[in-house]
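Apologies for my clumsy wording, but are you able to produce some protein sequence, whichever is easiest, and the tokens describing how it folds?
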Amino acid sequence: MTERKYKVPIRNLFCILCYAYEMPEFVSAFNGKDEDLPNLNLLANLFIKETDRIMMKGLVSDYHNHAEETNQLSGKIIFEQSLNYIIQKKPALVCERDQFDEDILINQILKVTLNTLLSIEDLSKEQKRRIYMQVNKLQNVSTVKLYRKTFSLIRLNRSQIYYQKMIFLAHFIFELKNLFHTEGPFNLIDVLSDDRKMQVIFEKFILNFYRIEQRKFLSKVERMKWKMFGGNLAIIPEMKTDISLIDPVNKEKIIIDAKYYADIFSKSFNADKIRSTHLYQLFTYLNHSSDVYLTRGILIYPTNGVKVDETYSISIQVGTEIQQSTIRIFTLDLNQKWKDIYDQMLGFMKS
């Protein structure tokens, strides 16, 4: 088995996902804790609170397929299951019809996770008491077997969106429990091997981190206009930044281009070089930025064993003038303590 190039403690991955999915309060709940793994007891508390919140709003009901033996035709006949009744000439068939009730997948995940938490040995009596009360309110919901693929089947509509945090915690609890069994590896971490998926998560993490954790800069995805005229502009692709940090008071802008690559370097005549396309992209953003703001750029990668922190002076055209700016290329070590990651992220904004 090949060793992963990225080493990210489960605790840090949990925090990154919390920011990416806009759930920073879950990160706050771990403040002051130094465990490598998110504490299951603490996760149980968070899940109990989320379940209380869902039940206060009311369990969602929806249509789902329901098969049952009946002597009256209704819905769709399932011939494979009805064949024995037909052969034995019994006045019964198995029919499938739409049923509207609470026994749907998201409520089944809720119930199964509550039962999973009850199996934690060091769960307090008060926690167990609250969970038993919650499970009792789910008597009309089936107890099903959860699989990893189950979570990929979930599609929340607008009326179900308040289940989102519960589903996030349920997925993480499911994977953490599997760490201690022979069922398989911690599959959620396999996302680290998928550069495409992790690229999106890495961008959202940085964007939301700055939106939540500081007030000086506005953190946004910025759409820019190409400095091009004439011709059919409809065929020109959209230009937008990963993260633009804008300080409207001091007229300052930081454009961050986040890249999640297994190898930040490309080879050129047997020498390691930063990928030219990444520099071209950031340089283009800087040259198309508003001429009102003093703009600088940061190209950020996660550290995969190679640490880089270099700042370069550049000249960019601002209106009709040439302005001095900087590009910083930096690797963020996701394998360090979360507090150090937190401090480094805030440190990026300093000149």
Notes: The two ends are 43 Å apart (CA to CA). The chain has a mean pLDDT of 83. The chain has eleven helices and 13 strands. Residues 114 and 131 are 6 Å apart (CA to CA).
